[in-house]
Queue: 4 jobs
Job 1
Amino acid sequence: MSGVPQYEYVKLADQIAAEIASGKLPIGAALPGERAMTQVYGVSIGTVRRAVRELRERGLVATLPAKGTFVVDPQA
């Protein structure tokens, strides 16, 4: 999809998905909190929230209220 503009949240979701695929974020790993992710990735809190929602829809992460967001096995 080279040359086609993408939303920032999709770019961030793709970046995190690549980190999961490479093993940098293994199954069971907790993603940083939303505020920390704004600093790590240099994006707004809204972008982080939409990216996490996108990752949930892709089946790569699960969010547990008051616990955090964790990498899950997409084949499980």
Job 2
Amino acid sequence: MDALERVKRMQGKLTQAQKTLDNFENYLKKFESEQTNIHSLIDYYGQDEWHQDRQIFNDPVLGDDPVNDLLIDNHQLTIKMLEIATKIIKNNRE
């Protein structure tokens, strides 16, 4: 591979990495702001109002599984972000 090909390849990697970081930053902002909604669900879930509403309405938000699954997914995603961040901070290339 000659120098020009190598530089073009590296430029492509730079462009792709910057695009990915920009996209991730946008999604991370959305994820962070969504935590307010998740905490509202946590506060509602299992409380007296939730039990009363559950007896009146048949809605997925009132079921045990959807909210619990969301909380588990949120927790697992947060752990995954920490694992990736730890690798980056340690300069681990894996």
Job 3
Amino acid sequence: MVRARYKQVVDRFAAEIQAGSLAPGTRLPTHRDLARSEGMALVTASRVYAELEAMGLVSGETGRGTFVREAKLPQAHGLDQQATPDGMLDLNFNYPAMPGQAELLRSALRQLATAGNLDALLRYSPHGGRAHERATAARHLQQRGLFVDGEQVALVTGAQHGLATTVMALLQPGDLVAIDALSYPGFKLLAETHRLELAPLPAAGQGPDPEALRALCQRRRVRAIYTMPTLHNPMGWVMSSAHRQALVEVARQHGLLIIEDAAYAFLERHAQPPLATLAPELTVYVSGLSKNVAAGLRVGFVVAPAPWLVQIERAIRATTWNAPGLMTAIACAWLEDGTVASLEEQKRQDAQARQSLVSQVLGDLGCIRHPASYFAWLPLREEQRADRVAMALLSQGISVATAQPFSTGPAPQALRLALGSVPLEVLRDALGRVKQTIEAQAY
């Protein structure tokens, strides 16, 4: 079978990149110049670059062109969690922990071992959780400004599972979902897995542009919007009340499902009310205990209107049947005895201390961040390449994420720094090395 000519061009570029003939950071011909030099249509030239990008060999940047990617940086770097090598400083993923949490777990396990209802944890439970567990979660969510009863809450195996069951239950392959141009990679992966189409929304102040969403809805049939109104990942936004109202207005006008991700909302002491309180009939609210307690405690919460919750519970059954009884029992005990509230307060103070270090060390590099968050967005200078900086840092034992995993459109040249996983006493040095590497990579 004769191989399509454009495939031959793809193969030639791929071979040159992999052999090192085209070095990382090399700017490739424009789509138009490639079409002219190869005697092919412009749309075919664009297809060449699209295939190379899908292979992880190049990246395209609006207004700048197409560049050879740093080949040694794994394509899924910043997206897929891998085992962290000994000695690696992880500024890629957030799993904040407080001193003494291991002892808290030992104590909880001892108490659980002597509990009279231990046998119940070995049996199936209702898909959305037992009534007393759901009521405990509902009381906890009151601290987030969400006043619901336990019948409106389903327990899931972490917030990511909550997002997954929401997508499974309420969306269909091919549905169009509006999302920030920079957003949480876990939802991007869900969209890819469930064959959803994502429509990037530009920013307007501290959140997605409501007028851009309105215009999108007027052009196309949008099924849902995924958003993080309180401590957005990766930008750290906290939407104002007016911004939230504007989004809700568009959602009501066009019948959009709102998927509200509140994974980091606990860090903001004085957040505006959740979207789920402004539009309870349209909103699925998802949160969990991975960030405020521990990443290994895979317990999350989904709040949704009653008809949707029935569908979500069926998705829970299809995936895990129910949240693990042992983890749920520990989580509920900690919610009831104040352990979670205490850990949340410690982590608020910890996040602020880490952001203070960011301000001191990286303050002149134009970081975009919120003083209560566990991450910082670091735009690079126009002449710099994020993958080259990330690779240089990896060689020094520091792992950071580029913008690529967070981008739902063309990726800017930027780094996302996760601040919550490195011990506080070594974070200053790690940030200093990030700054030195960025400055050394300028050319």
Job 4
Amino acid sequence: MPDVILFNKPYGVITQFSDHALHPTLSNHIDAPGFYPAGRLDTDSEGLLLLTNDGKLQAHIADPRHKLPKTYWVQVEGSPSDDALAALRRGVDLGDFTTLPALAERLAPPDIWPRTPPIRVRKFIPDSWIALTIREGKNRQVRRMTAKVGLPTLRLIRVQVGDWTLEGITPGAWRQLSVDLPPTAPPRNPRKPMRP
């Protein structure tokens, strides 16, 4: 049975074990030989990062074909209008691709840890929170989505991937769980020809 690590990645930590000249890495927080990240989380993003010691499970989690939902709490500059939320729900044309429809809702300011360094605050521009669930994970996708609808991201925290959540895990801490491997695709009927 494979194991998975749920890690609450702090701001500024790079999703790699090898040393980095400017930033702390996973090796500063996790001592678990044989575990590797299943997916990634940008250096300036926080929250749930999954690691596993099983290659099949790593591929299942990271492969966009499986479309595991990923939920983020996003602190944005401005107040989300109904139109902005509707655009996120429809899918946003980012130029190089159009995102899949997302779940997007206003979120009351969550009771979470302070960020170091703190976000930039503008005196005359409010900030607010949205909960955003996507089934993709392209480079800086959430930040690009919110910017496209006029809500630049100030802080980004991933709180859930599939059924795994950040609940009860403080920044820099991790929890190890044993999990079942996801089911594999059923064998193809050898008498039924494949479509080209």
